[in-house]
């Protein structure tokens, strides 16, 4: 008996050429043997979005947010139309829909808006007509009927949100790797593929730099109880299931390690040691939609503090300007920044019940002369900022130290 519905998302490498688009069409058509209704979400082909961003910069170094989104959203339109054509060419009915045609409504924020609702009526009508529906990821429509994008990698989130709206229990995410690994196999050759991983672990890994899934897609899947199946676009092997925690106890304290080389460290020096100062700094950054990651405050001898934090490199210019303004406003000495850092992290639900994980992590770095600049922890993760030039070596060392190598 066929399952009612499935949502499948194909990334940029999956639709990177006419040959790959035809392969996607074959895979989607084959799914009709198992599912009554199929909705496909696509990213832009290959490097299309990067090329569009480069093109925009050749015209304007500071394009308006509206026109920027109007431009970079076009890549997904191309992919969706071509996938629909490929399916039609093979004798099956299909239709491509843009985000707004598919009923995707977003916040009134350009470049990194959140999806607030989906009106599935148009999709449901096309499915009832027997069509395979191809939807553009990464985009939606705001309250003013402007095309809005939801952040790089946002097609994952588009797919999971549609799965939730359509009550699909599973969302297949096809990418250029055949599942979720203990770390990036392109960086550490001994990385091991995981058969399954919990929502919480995957959310931490995705937030900390693992590029397999967009963090918001995992968050949405967890809230709505949707299982994500991360699979290869180029083979039929089983991938990795992202799902609720197993009820059994976890034997291994660390499930995965990851590296983020896209963060910048900013320090505001000699800030007056007064109540409310930190609130003022981070409220200002928040109001500018700048996400702050690692934070540390160190107390100086003259009743002042140095407040250090990290932001994504895309937000660095704006964060630096705001920090300089805050430093003058608060009577701080100055600001400093470091663009040559990387964030190294380990993640695992087993950390909660196994002492000594932090000691082992820091010892592995210390005995290999890798200096730690910042530290951040939660119940299931430990992160530290280190010199970027040491990043890949440190990742391999920590991966091996916690028995994550595929020969461990």
Question: How does this model look, in words?
Answer:
This protein has helices at 18-30, 48-59, 65-72, 74-89, 121-128, 155-165, 199-207, 215-224, 277-287, 316-330, 357-366, 391-401; strands at 3-10, 35-42, 94-97, 104-106, 115-118, 132-136, 139-141, 147-149, 170-175, 196-198, 227-232, 240-243, 256-260, 263-272, 292-299, 304-312, 334-338, 341-347, 374-378, 381-387. The protein has 408 residues and is an alpha/beta fold. It has a domain at 3-176: 3-Layer(aba) Sandwich (Carbamate kinase). The strands form five sheets. Strands 3-6-2-1-9-11-12-10 form an eight-stranded mixed beta sheet, with helices on both faces. A four-stranded antiparallel beta sheet has the order 13-18-20-19, with helices on both faces. Strand 11 (227-232) and strand 12 (240-243) form a beta hairpin. It starts with a strand and ends in a 7-residue tail after the last helix.
Order of strands, widest sheet: 3-6-2-1-9-11-12-10
Largest sheet: 8 strands, mixed
State Rg.
Answer: 23 Å
Q: Based on helices, strands and strand pairing, what is the structural class?
A: alpha/beta
Tally the helices: what do you get? 12
Portion of residues in beta strands equals 25-35%
Distance between the termini: 41 Å
Provide the CATH topology of one domain. Answer: Carbamate kinase
- Overall mean pLDDT score? 94
**CATH H level of one domain: which superfamily?**
Acetylglutamate kinase-like
Give the helix level as a range of percent.
Answer: 25-40%
Q: Could you name the CATH class of one domain? A: Alpha Beta
What is the overall silhouette?
globular
Q: How many β-strands, per DSSP?
A: 20
Uncertain residue ranges: none
- Which CATH-level-2 architecture of one domain? 3-Layer(aba) Sandwich
